[in-house]
Automatic annotation (TrEMBL):
This is hydroxymethylpyrimidine kinase. Signal peptide: none annotated. The keyword Transferase applies. It comes from Campylobacter pinnipediorum subsp. caledonicus. GO terms for molecular function: hydroxymethylpyrimidine kinase activity; phosphomethylpyrimidine kinase activity. GO terms for cellular component: cytosol.
Amino acid sequence: MNEEYTIIAGSDSVAGAGAQADIKTCEALGCYGAAAISVLVAENSQNVVSISEVSSEFVDSQIKCIVDELKIDAVKIGMLYNTNIINTVLRWIPFIDAPIVLDPVCISKSNIKLIDDDAIDSLKELFKYATIATPNKFEAECIFQNNFNNLLCDIVVKKDVVNGYSVDRLYKKDGGVFDFSTPLIKPELVHGAGCTFSSAIACFLALGFDIQDCVKNAKNYVYNAILNSHDTKFGKTLLRHNFKDFNE
């Protein structure tokens, strides 16, 4: 039986990011993914057109259905959108005995704020329950002011560009710091890479890897998904999550 992995995240119309990308990552890496959708997003790789809220009551019902049926081996938490939904997730955490990957989606990789300020404050409460969090550099600055001392969980800050390499830096709770790099690929911004990275970490946690191997394996998985990315009308903007099925 596949390791079972729960996703709490927003949707994405073109399925390059959000819960759709998370589920495709699960399938590619040999896990079974179940999803509670926290917000509906009409978007493609170029634009966010519209966002439709999902009620906290409906998010609660989705999580209950998952917890009632599945043995959960890992959890990935993505975009939660507002304080009510964050508080709903917080109420469920004590009932889930599994590693948690928190992708604190609050500022886009193009530095656009995605949730309200009060929701960012509530989001910080989730860090005390997370195994590892995966902010981008703007989120890391907003949440931590780039101070990674006395952490509540391990933190990996996504994608610093250094001498032609994409570098993710892991800050461990115990003070250790580790860099993971892959060659930089054009285009440098690929839709859904961050979501896929955090999902892959959750998959490898469900499969029993330690944190450093999870980050290394997830980094390499995303790199290859970008190398084999789909052609769209906007260019190579969408990851090929099941690239292993292709002789490329």
